[in-house]
Amino acid sequence: ELVVNVNKDMVNALGLGQVTSEPPSKFSFVSWNLDGLDERNLKRRTKAVCKIIYMEHPDVIFFQEMIPETFSYIEGKLPEYMCIAGSTEGYFTATLLRRFTVYYDSHRITEHSGSLMMRNLLTVEAHIGSLKLQLVNTHLESTRDHSAERIKQLKDSFKIAQDFPEDYTVLLAGDMNLRDKELELAGGIPPGIEDLWISCGSRKECQYTWDMVRNCNKELPGKFKPRCRFDRAYIRHSHPKRVVPAHFGLVGIEKVTSTQCFPS
Amino acid sequence: ELVVNVNKDMVNALGLGQVTSEPPSKFSFVSWNLDGLDERNLKRRTKAVCKIIYMEHPDVIFFQEMIPETFSYIEGKLPEYMCIAGSTEGYFTATLLRRFTVYYDSHRITEHSGSLMMRNLLTVEAHIGSLKLQLVNTHLESTRDHSAERIKQLKDSFKIAQDFPEDYTVLLAGDMNLRDKELELAGGIPPGIEDLWISCGSRKECQYTWDMVRNCNKELPGKFKPRCRFDRAYIRHSHPKRVVPAHFGLVGIEKVTSTQCFPS
DNA sequence: CCAGCTAGG
DNA sequence: CCCTAGCTG
Q1: Catalytic-residue membership of B175
Q2: pTM > 0.85: yes or no
Q3: Which residues of B touch A (CB under 8 A)?
Q4: Contact A151, A115 (CB under 8 A)
Q5: What are phi and psi of B196, to 5 degrees?
Q6: Which residues make Cβ contacts (< 8 Å) with residue B240, sequence separation at least 6?
Q7: Which terminus of chain A is more solvent-facing, meaning fewer CB atoms within 10 Å of its CB: N or C?
Q8: CA at A211, C1' at C1: how many angstroms apart?
Q9: Which residue is nearest to nucleotide D7 (CA to C1')?
Q10: Where are the alpha helices (DSSP H) in chain B?
């Protein structure tokens, strides 16, 4: 089972089962925006994230809004994971590979050339048995105002995912800050790429990956509670197909013990 | 000489000389946003526009923000022009051809599919002697908020301009509401297309086609006077090349007699 | 890190 | 039909 956290507020769980019977025949994936720019309870929130990761033991983790202190803390706290950071300053993405199951081959960082927010793509090449993976973790330009730049970044990211050799399974995921209207303007999801939330049945209960109804870390003055599907996970299958999406869900949707807040 | 008004505040004058010596060996083109949504002095402003058109007698005119009343008025006032409207309701583009020099062949209207403002492309096929023209008049999505939609419309427009058969000279112009940053995000001007303001020397004195420094029809409370190059004119040359850009300038930059306002 | 609106420069 | 900030559902 593969757990995908594509949310900074909560975690999306996605089960992918390999078609082959080679061990492990399933793997799990989580994407999670840690909200590392919000210092409130950051230590305790990060600790809670580690606890959830420890309990769920996902094979691959994509973090966004990691900061250097958080990176060091997580490296120390989760020795069973190899940790690859997208940068060393400010806030950045980091990808974690569970050492027992996922083998690191290489990684590279690709800048989003027009970003005003130092956003990039962190691509890790890895393998699970004979399954070859390209793991593309990104945090696209934030806020409505930067819609056009975000659309360009999304298109560039799709292009990169499409262009890997066909023997790779590509996971492109992270905090996309995406609105459906913007996906339309980008020309939609290109041929050969699937949205894993959709692949797993478009379940309403795990639609919103940024959700002020469920998560009260940020409060708005009025009573309006916005919710968006900002965090998304896409797969480009290998040829022949090696992976079958099995389950998509959320994690991190409970408050941290002894605090009034959520992990992110 | 070809006079191009690519401005609602003032007119850009562009001289294009044909390479051949067939008469007429020069033609002139104007693009002009009439600001027909602003009813203040609209009759008098429209009359002033007609006077300038009458004096300059451009061969091809692209109007934007025409309204039905203005269209009827201009048709009556400028009988030497054939008038083709992009719509009959609300506000719209209209293209005028000087009957003595430019011969109408056909026209078509192409919607900008994602527009929330009923924006389209009005394409008139015409000829001047043996020179075959596709005259593409448009008013792209307005305001900063609609940047992403505008970028898509621009790319679609460039694509259409590029795809005409090579024996046509294509003029793509109008009120693009374009910021340079957006042109970058669109991937820049595609191969084979030229910006006529640049072709004619990027002269600073005719850079701003929407200019609150020169034009006081709209007043802002503060002392900040924005200016932008919203209105632009692009050419895709025929093969072999038939037209040489000769001059780009502004018209309509003087106040209307007996009013405190500019024509648009 | 919502969308839509308004005010002030 | 500028830009930014601030308000409010």
Answers
A1: yes
A2: yes
A3: 114, 147-149, 151-152, 182, 184-185
A4: no
A5: -70, -25
A6: none
A7: N
A8: 11
A9: A221
A10: 42-56, 68-77, 147-163, 180-185, 196-199
Q: How far is A152 from chain B (nearest CA, A)?
A: 7
Catalytic residue among B9, B35, B59, B175: B175
| In the block, residue with structure tokens 């040489």 | B244
Kindly determine whether residue A148 and residue B182, on different chains, have CB atoms separated by under 8 Å: yes
B33 CB-to-strand D distance under 7 Å = yes
B116 touches strand D (CB under 7 A): no
DSSP alpha helices (H): ranges in A175-219?
Answer: 180-185, 196-199
The amino acid sitting at B226 is: P
* Length of chain A as a residue count: 264
Q: Which of A98, A55, A90 is nearest to A70 (CA)?
A: A90
Interface with chain A: mutation pick from B116, B141, B145, B147, highest number of A CBs within 10 Å: B147
CA B260 to mean position of chain CA atoms: 25
| Cβ atoms B43, B150 nearer than 8 A | no
What is the rounded distance in angstroms from the CA atom of residue A111 to the CA atom of residue A92? 12
How far is B101 from B116, CA to CA, in rounded Å? 36
Which of B152, B180, B181 is best to mutate for the A interface (most A CBs within 10 A)? B152
Is-cis flag, bond preceding B24, omega within 30? yes
Q: Which nucleotide is nearest to B222 (CA to C1')?
A: C9
Map residue B69 onto helix, strand or coil.
helix
pLDDT by position in tens, chain B (length 264): 334 434 444 445 455 655 544 557 899 999 999 999 888 888 999 999 999 999 999 999 999 999 999 999 999 999 999 999 999 999 999 999 999 999 999 999 999 999 989 999 999 999 999 999 999 999 999 999 999 999 999 999 999 999 999 999 999 999 999 999 999 999 999 999 999 999 999 999 999 999 988 887 877 666 788 899 999 999 999 999 999 999 999 988 888 887 878 888
d(CA B257, CA B52): 12
Minimum-distance nucleotide, CA of A227 to C1': C2
Q: Would you put residue B201 in left (φ > 0), alpha (ψ -120 to 50) or beta?
A: left
Report chain A residues whose CB lies below 8 A from the CB of B147: 147-148
Measured CA to CA, the distance from residue B186 to residue B197 in angstroms comes to 19
